[in-house]
């Protein structure tokens, strides 16, 4: 029996298990197949979005407008909502190919209203929000519209301290202040009623914070007629030990204490202290009172602390703060009797494994980044090959030189809390998959971690949507001949979308291929290789369709050919690392590198792309 003689319902059910390339080939068989697919286009391609993982299995019945809202980066870029499920597939494929450097050149945009001295920033791409929050080297805080590049809200530099860090998610903004060293929490004003926070919030704002909208709000914004992007005081968190580093993953704020003695988990919407986790004494270096905290991260079930020696991974819900501690901050936390007594309280990554612990061995036996041969597929990206690690050779050495210090600078965990990426000042990137297996005693870190030697110092990291972006740079005065530095995009290909991109085979690639991330690919962003502005990058973010960082207007104009490059010996710094504020490269604005398709394609162009895509 010929397949197309079956009832249409059965054929459509079969097509649910076909990828896009097969669907395209089916339509080339004869006119009957072509008409069948076209008459049922939305049904066929809606199933294809589930097959490829563009939407989850449970989201197969979601409305098209809901998909548009979840991918506002795409629909905003072309100025049109999705026209149908085939259009969803087409644009999602284009985004994936652009991230791989095989599609169109990403569009680079500077948000000039963010100012000239951006230090940290946060993003809200939700359709009804669409703004960037920035703090600044000289103080102050701004909220700037992504689409119009206009200021929506601004607190003056006399209120928000110099070099303040900030966190934001789901309408809550957090930034730090001195005197006393506390964390201010503000909330989007249009998400709650009234000018004062609810009375049930324990850590209430003080008079200074409550008076800030009247005294320090810049004249170009107003809280009397609040609009999009306007914030109002919500809470003030002053922990027992001054905060050093903090990370907000809604609804929980993780705070590391200044002297590395304790971690605090603070529920931001309710304004209460959920938990205080003491740093295990076994993790504290000999002769010290606590660990030196470089960075903190919050996962679904664990808290992460970057230290000079490693990354501490501590189980959440070890301790619950009782009501007395929530009120006065002096009672010791109670143990959580629901915790499995046999499970370890914490892990010290990379642990005692010499192959991961000793920096010299880590660099020598790590995978390497090698530039791919041949011309780049677009002017803004260059593919790099991630080679497999060398096979360790036997050694008869009785002693080793050097300390165990690796100086971890950042760590980020996947939303499901299973995978993480960590980087060190010495240029090693660790890609760790399903690390909870180590907690359960099913694996060691050396079995689940891929180490990549970036060649130069790794300073900033973003890890979202099965991708990692790492910024590296060299220290001035060091010989960096033959070394690479810049912004690198790693596509891990461990989660949906599936069967969209097939990685390029490279005969020169060392074997065996790293089994932990067998489809890993890497690309360098070519517009961001100038070492002088690169070393000033202080913030790096990633969304579904873009990479964001603070960047120099002058440096971008140079690569675009608008101005001549500055001479390499141009005076750049004074007093060691301190930069000259008037130097052109010291002007830092928020920069967006957008991988979304910028123009809607015609139907014929859509078909051509499907035909030539490699699956």
UniProtKB/TrEMBL annotation:
Name this polypeptide is given: F-box domain-containing protein
Organism phylogeny: Eukaryota, Fungi, Dikarya, Basidiomycota, Agaricomycotina
Region Disordered, residue ranges: 317-344
Pfam families in UniProt: F-box-like
InterPro entries for the chain: F-box-like_dom_sf (IPR036047), F-box_dom (IPR001810)
SUPFAM superfamilies: F-box domain
Bias (Polar residues) ranges: 324-340
The F-box domain, residue ranges: 1-48
